[in-house]
Amino acid sequence: MTQSKKDIVIAVGGPGGSGITTISKMLSRYYRIKHIYAGDLFRKAAKERDYEYFEEFLQEISKGGNTLDYEIDSLLEEYANRGNVVLDSKIYGALAKVKCLKCDVSIWLDASKSVKIKRHLEKENIKGLKKLKRYFEIKRRLSKRYKIDKEKYWRLYRVKYDKPKLYYDIVLDTSNMNEEETFNLILEKIKDGQYIKE
Questions:
Q1: Mean of the pLDDT values across residues 30-57?
Q2: pLDDT one-digit tens code per residue, 3-18
Q3: What is the Cα–Cα distance from 142 to 72, expressed in whole angstroms?
Q4: Cα 106 to chain center, whole Å?
Q5: In the chain, which ranges are E strands?
Q6: Does some domain include residue 4?
Q7: Is the four-CA dihedral 39, 17, 148, 49 of positive or negative sign?
Q8: What CATH number is attached to the domain comprising 107?
C-alpha cells in the first residue's frame, strides 16, 4: 500500500486456530501500521504470576473477581485511540460495537474444529502415536478455551461470543481458504464496504 499513513483501527478476532494472528500481521504489513496481540499481554501477566500452564491461568482469571480482562481491554482501547493499529483480540471488535469504541472495521475469523486442530499440528514436527495423542490434546484444549471465553465474555460484557454476526463487520469461515485467499478476500470486503478509504 502506497498511501500516506492514515488514522486506521482494525480489529481481528476469533477462536484459536482460525488464522487471526497470521491475518493480523498481514494487515499490519499491508497498511504499515502497528500490530498488537492481546494474547501476548495475557501471557506476560501469566509469567509475572508464575503460572506454569497458560490454560490454568486462563481458567483462573475467568472466575469472578478478575480485573485483568478489564485492564487489558482498556489498554487495547488506548491503542485504538492513538490510531494506526491492528488489534488482534478475541473481544475488541465486539466491544467496539457495544461500547462505540474507535474501530474502522472489525473482522471475525473462524474455521471448523478439525481444520483448527490440523493447523495447530502443522506447527509441530511430530509423527505416529505422538501426533494422534497430540490431536486429542489440542481438541480438548480448544473446546475448553472456547467454553471459557464464551462464559467469560458474557459475564464481563454481556457479549454473545458464539454470535459474531451481531458485532463484526466481516465474518469469515476460513476452513477452505489458505492465508493468501483469506487475506485477499478481506481486502476485497474492506474495499467493497468502504471501511477504510485508500
A1: 73
A2: 345 789 999 999 988 8
A3: 22
A4: 11
A5: 9-13, 34-37, 85-88, 105-110, 170-173
A6: no
A7: negative
A8: 3.40.50.300
